[in-house]
Amino acid sequence: MNASTGQVTSMEARMAALKVRFIEDTLLQTSELESLADRLAEPGDKDEVRQAIGQIAHRLAGRAGIFDFSALTPQAAELEHFVLSHRSDADLRGLTETIVPEIRRVILGDEAGCHAPEGPDHGPGSDGS
Predict the structure, then answer these.
(1) Which of 78, 103, 98 shows the shortest CA–CA distance to 37?
(2) 0.85 exceeded by the pTM?
(3) Which of 9, 15, 26, 69 could cross-link with 64 by S-S, CB 3.0 to 4.6 Å?
(4) Which helix (DSSP H) or strand (DSSP E) does residue 55 occupy?
(5) pLDDT of 74-111, one tens digit each?
(6) DSSP code, position 44
(7) Alpha-carbon span 11 to 22, nearest angstrom
(8) Radius of gyration for the chain, computed over Cα atoms and rounded to the nearest angstrom
(9) Cα 74 off chain centre by
């Protein structure tokens, strides 16, 4: 059974590494979303900007649940829906500016050990490892 335990441990390690990468990528994408939201206020054609926001939102909506961030899925889906329903640039910018801090709060809360504590000894600042 050691081989089975080793496989589980290996799979858990791979998933943990993928989750860390998801967190890093998502934090980078929040900065990109902020930049794109600012571009919505500039004059000119916004099709590429809107498409980029929609793509980020779509990926986030699809991947968030895989890594136990299902709280982000409805928000990302709403942002994608705003793009697809051709809401105004001002509305899209406002929603983007509202959702980005929430994404960071959820993601950084997990990094700090706040996302899904396993018990009273597993919160921030504990030595629950």
Answers:
(1) 98
(2) no
(3) 69
(4) helix 47-63
(5) 999 999 999 999 989 999 999 999 999 999 998 888 54
(6) S
(7) 16
(8) 18
(9) 11
